[in-house]
């Protein structure tokens, strides 16, 4: 169950992290066009930052909810 939860958090975090970092640099990119490798590197960096943050959040979430029903 933990893996099932964490991979979903990881995918969402990766996508959100890449999107957020590109949104932050949007105006700067309109002034001068960056190269594709620069944008790809920035997207991957933001994605991995988001992945780490969301996996940590997923672990905290998993630990905070009770998993064993009381009989």
Supply database-style keywords.
single chain; mainly alpha; rod-shaped; 3 helices; 71 residues; 82% helix
**Tally of individual helices:** 3
Kindly state the number of beta strands: 0
Q: What percentage of amino acids are in beta strands? A: under 5%
Overall geometric form? rod-shaped
Quote the distance from N terminus to C terminus.
20 Å
Quaternary organization: single chain
Largest sheet: none
Give the overall average pLDDT. 90
Helical proportion, percent range:
over 70%
Task: Give me the strand/helix succession.
Answer: HHH
Low-confidence stretches: none
- Structural class by helix and strand composition: mainly alpha
| Backbone CA Rg | 17 Å
Detailed description of the structure:
The model has no long low-confidence stretch (mean pLDDT 90). It is built from 3 helices and no strands. The chain is mainly alpha-helical and 71 residues long. It is 82% helix and 0% strand. 14% of the residues are buried.
Structure summarized in a few sentences:
The chain has helices spanning 2-24, 26-31, 36-64.
Helix-strand blueprint:
Blueprint: H1 2-24, H2 26-31, H3 36-64
């Amino acid at each position: 169950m933990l893996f099932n939860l964490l991979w979903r958090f990881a995918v969402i975090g990766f996508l959100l992290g890449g999107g957020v970092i590109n949104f932050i640099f949007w105006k700067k990119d309109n002034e001068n066009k960056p190269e594709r490798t620069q944008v790809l590197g920035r997207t991957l960096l933001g994605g991995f930052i988001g992945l780490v943050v969301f996996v940590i959040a997923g672990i905290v979430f998993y630990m905070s909810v009770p998993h064993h029903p009381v009989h």
